[in-house]
Amino acid sequence: MAMAMVRSGALRTALRGGSRASAPPKRSFSSSAHHDDAYETAKWEKITYLGIATCTILAIYNLSKGHPHYEQPPPYPYLHIRNKEFPWGPDGLFEAKPHHH
């Protein structure tokens, strides 16, 4: 019982980062060693928010312009060729059909 408590205490200390002396020094992979991480984070956060705002404004502009509506094309005979009846009936599965009650 005492051994389990010692083990869990050591595990808890290790998980908490209690022995920091044995931890290896932090390596920096950036080109300049004196570069500030907080500065980089703040810079990219501003760039991200600017990008979100720009995309939102462009989307609102494009969607508010409207788009042309054309007349229905003539019913070309080659669009709905039915050589054989479908197993579910004469209409296609996703075609709009009148409701019969």
Structure description:
The structure is a single chain. Helix content is 43%, strand content 0%. It has 101 residues and is mainly alpha-helical. The protein is elongated and about 70 Å long. The termini are far apart. The relative contact order is 0.04. The model has no long low-confidence stretch (mean pLDDT 75).
Can you give keywords for this protein?
101 residues, mainly alpha, 2 helices
Radius of gyration: 34 Å
Q: Compute the number of helices.
A: 2
- Report the count of strand segments: 0
- Give, in order, the helices and strands: HH
Helix content: 40-55%
Q: What is the overall shape?
A: elongated
Topology:
Layout: H1 2-16, H2 37-64
Give me a quick take on this structure.
With 101 residues, the chain is an all-alpha fold. The chain has 2 helices and no strands. The chain is elongated, with a radius of gyration of 34 Å.
